[in-house]
Amino acid sequence: MATYYTIVTIVGSLRKESFSLKVANALAKLAPASLKLDVTTLHDISFFNQDLEEAPPADWLAFREKLQKSNGVLFVTPEYNRSIPGVLKNAIDVGSRPYGKSSFLGKPTGIVSNSPGALGGVSAAKHLQNILPGISGPILGQPEIYLNGIGDAFNEKGELVKEAVQKVLQQYIDAFAAFIEKQNR
Fold this sequence. Notes:
Elements: E1 5-11, H1 19-30, E2 35-40, H2 58-69, E3 72-78, H3 86-95, E4 109-114, H4 122-131, E5 145-147, H5 163-183
Parallel strand pairs: 1-2, 1-3, 3-4, 4-5
Helix pairs in contact: 1-5
């Protein structure tokens, strides 16, 4: 029986044709057999409100449980206004609560940012690098990945067609797989 690590792959965009969703799906296809990427969108996570922590909504509990059962987390995010999208910050707030009991805690983490523009979402990735320490596990430091000019990387079916992007994604997911294996020993 093959052993694999389950990775909650959080898509930081709600847009139906989001580049982040396409990148996450491409990474899932490129992942070695040792990883199973559970591509997770954030459509169903209600807004965090500390007043609800006594009796958390079912969607919060389901998201937290998914994180807790995983072997790692991979964030795939666009950049909105030089930061992460609000929906992603909300998911982080939901998953990191209640205080001191973050569902991300101890989970090896990766960050992939993307943009159709020239900077590749670097500000969003850097904000995640500022937010996650203290509520997550170790963050893969190298290689860093900021996918710029991603707009023409996929065909109308959402399939990755840009060879240069495929090469970068393959290098990243292989390095992430090695990182996950090392952290889960």
